[in-house]
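REVIEWER CHECKLIST
Item 1: Sequence provided? yes
Item 2: Single chain? yes
Item 3: Sequence as submitted:
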Amino acid sequence: MNSVTGFAQNLINKSDISDIVYNVLAGNRLDLGDYLRLLGSDDVYSLGISANYLRNKLFGNDASFVNNIILNYTNVCVTYCKFCAFYRPPGHSESYTLSLRQILERVIGAKETYGITQILIQGGHNPNLRIEYYEEAFREMKRRYPEIGIHGLSASEIDMIARVERSTTREILHRLKLAGLDSLPGAGAEVLDDSVKSAISPLKIKTDEWLRIMEEAHSLGIRSSATMMYGTVETTEQRANHLFLIAKLQEKTRGFMSFIPWSFEPNKTEMQSDGSVRYSSGGLGLLKMIAISRIVFYGLIKHLQSSWLTNGIGMAQMALNYGADDFGGTLIGEEVVSATGARSTELTASKIIESIRQIGYRPCERDNYYNIIRYF
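Item 4: Structure as written out by the authors:
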């Protein structure tokens, strides 16, 4: 770590995780014990100094974002996750499913108004939707705007479509790729531990299924994000194992483009009403998780998002100093987190650019695959 000098190096050397940081810089892979030590450390400042150094080695002064919309195509869902305020059961008076015409109207409007380069498509687990619904939507989007990346459908949604079609998830992925699907978001992972899943989302896919579907997607050339929703009922050991499982799959496939840790927002959810989780993890928890993610995934997963959606703009700015390199998306039209009533869940590109500049970084717009389109 020859290029780290002075105050920063002294801080790292005095911290209880300095040997881990040196190991990462030497190109060595960390083990589960290292993950546990990082998560158990209370020295958040030294974690941030270390993670920011690693981030700067990769990206210098650049911080990226993507100009996108999020298309929540249906809120009809039969998995009834306890952490979700968005879903409605089939037949509910507030349930909806967008038609192909409505989908295209939103996409066309967003392209003409905002110049989007990505569509993030996620919804409920709707048993009434056949695969043709998705194929027709993807084909029409690509016919009109072939340059827009379709970043859509969580592993659990892929599983739902396969169940409806009585098909394999691999076949579903293959058909959707032919229709225009470019990449998968990481949703549905939550924390990759079946005891956690049984407590918060008992009807959703289990750990091995999420990992298998992601591996199938990567083998078909469909890249993806990886996520972790922390702050429900998981232990430190379960968080560590989640990170470890993501790292092991990435070593095998190299298919994850980014990692996105985001804190659970309990407002208006069943978990808040039953008293199992009353408050979110807060800003310090975010900064610690961002820093640890940069350290453990250094050399494995290049991009790390700042999680402004669940933590707000100010914390996202801080996260850029704790290892994150990407602000995320503009997320025009987001409905899932906004269902909690926690905060505004839309940003314009100009607001993100201003936010990045405010803390001394150079804003740059990227595409779906994290290729830089332009600098500001």
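Item 5: Key structural point noted by reviewer: Residues 143 and 306 are 32 Å apart (CA to CA).
Item 6: Recommendation: ____
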